[in-house]
């Protein structure tokens, strides 16, 4: 489960897509860049197995849809 999810725009012009994201998963902090196409570029080292990474990405996509795209 993702905890303490945060995001902020990569650009001063917040209309441009691209976000820095950070969160905790199993007491470990993770950071990355969420691109407009949904791709996540990890900027911190992470130790997810394939299935866990798939689930974490799904949770991030849902959070971004709710916080960014649904609130426009």
Automatic annotation (TrEMBL):
InterPro entries: UCP037692 (IPR017263). It comes from the Bacteria. This is YheE family protein.
